[in-house]
Design brief:
There is one protein chain. With 113 residues, the chain is mostly helical. Among the domains are: 47 residues; 29 residues, no CATH class. 49% of the residues lie in helices and 7% in strands. The chain contains 3 helices and 2 strands. The chain has a two-stranded antiparallel sheet. Strand 1 and strand 2 form a beta hairpin. The longest helix has 30 residues. It is elongated.
């Protein structure tokens, strides 16, 4: 333990003699720690945090593909296509649809937790 204390004292004295190097090292450490914290905060908020909806693992994104076009086009569904798919659906799962859509059944809004 006394060796460690002696090493710390020597490091502090050396930093006191070279103030410019010490300042540059501290600024570099502060910028690195700040950038790392910001990056991981964004990563957690965008990728890792679970979605705030009930049954979030059942949410899907529907799109349609037009392979016969000059360039393959993938786009989101239009309301007409969505309603046609919804009415021709042959499974027991309900497709609630977008909020405010005009259809015979009232759409359900995904509830936030």
């Amino acid at each position: 333990m006394t060796d460690f204390r002696g090493d710390v004292r020597q490091a502090v004295r050396a930093m006191g003699r070279q103030k410019g190097f010490t300042a540059a090292a501290l600024v570099s450490l502060a910028l690195g720690i700040g950038a790392n914290t910001a990056l991981f905060s964004v990563t957690y908020g965008v990728l890792l945090r679970p979605l705030p909806y009930d049954d979030a693992d059942r949410l899907v994104r529907l799109s349609e593909e037009h392979p016969g076009a000059n360039a393959p086009v993938r786009r989101l569904l239009s309301n007409l296509t969505f309603h046609a798919w919804r009415h021709s659906l042959r499974c027991s799962a309900r497709v609630p649809g977008p909020v405010g859509s005009c259809c015979p059944t009232t759409p359900r809004r995904a509830r936030s937790r």
